[in-house]
Amino acid sequence: MKLFSISKAVHVPKFKEAEHFSTIIDVEAPKNMVYSLSQQHNMKCSPTVKRNDRVLVNQIIGVGENNSVVPVYASVSGTVKQVTTKVDLMGNKVDVILIENDFLYEKEEREAFDYSALTFDELREKIKALGLIETQNLSNRKRGMQLSFKDDVKNVLINAQESGLYGQVDSYLYENEREDFLRGLGLVRSLYKNANITVLSTSDADSVIGFTELLKNTDVKLISKIPTQFYHDMNLASRDVFGDFAMKYTMVVDAFLLPAVARGLLDNRLTHYQLLLVNGGAVKNPGIYKVMSGTTLNYVMEAAGVEDPFRVVAGNILSGDAVFAMDAPINRGIREVLFLNENEVNKEEEMNCIKCGRCADVCPVGLQPYELNALVINRDFDEFFKNRGGMCVECGRCSYVCPSKRHLLQSFKTAKKVKR
């Protein structure tokens, strides 16, 4: 298998119709669990356990001081084998906790509470304690879910716009997680009694039919738009639905985390798994996999029957990142991993920019990607940010339409990392 560097892009030569998956495939938690302590940018948690400690399900094993950093929980019971440094999926060195699973799943009891009796600040702390990370604010990626909740809003947007070229990820919201999703909507209504609540979905027929049937007995509106990667940025989603880019009167909630919020606030239950779309030409059994937190990617590959992938992408084909290590834990917030065979990948090399302007035409925030790319190549990062490069929402549309196969998005991600 040939992995590629983070600076390279994958250009799929032909559009592939997105598949619809209706069943969830369980991946059994392995004996050796790996928990990353890394979160937003350079922020991370500090371990609360040490080698040879026994841990229980629901036990906090990592905490952070910054408000946007949420706690890390053990999803299994067992023994801490090591607290060390490891390379994550994207090739970054991160602190990790290695736990040997004893398969007993003994739990640490959680303190009961009534969310309706809490002040709003107390409620946000309870949401933070759920350990959920949302990724829909692309200028401030991977932050605690509690930061999305505001004390007073006119509009609430439940953003279920999640679609790649290889599959629809939203189907489990109106099928497998249906009950908890509805409970989450009821929870939001109880918190914001006078707000206009709207679900934003993709416009494919399955999603429209599924969400329409799901919401028929609620007062929640449904808006469906063509699947577009830039809707994964909450500011752009708010702009296009409510005309409120600054989100002054709007709160955007990650729809894929809403069932976990409902379980956490209504049942006092933590969600220790994530649902992951696994697809691509090298996958024998594509589908949506239920993966326990702390599971490394190689176990998912084994369950999915992945054979000799030529390229591996975490995220999606437009704005995903190259996978650097298969024995790394699956980063929280990743909902799609693609294992592509050689025939699926266009191997044309990057060519000189021809100044056609296609990248500028498709940029949702009005940037000039070809100019920003030149600044990154010349390592003029100050000018990159003066020219609003920091506003890039990492949708990947510029790289996708570029006839010269320029690695535009990848260069912008590099510039942001250098600046941080």
TrEMBL record:
Residues 343-373, 382-412 form the 4Fe-4S ferredoxin-type domain. The keyword Manganese does not apply. GO terms for cellular component: membrane. It comes from the Bacteria. Keywords: Iron, Iron-sulfur, Metal-binding. PANTHER family: ION-TRANSLOCATING OXIDOREDUCTASE COMPLEX SUBUNIT C. This is 4Fe-4S binding protein. It comes from Proteiniclasticum aestuarii.
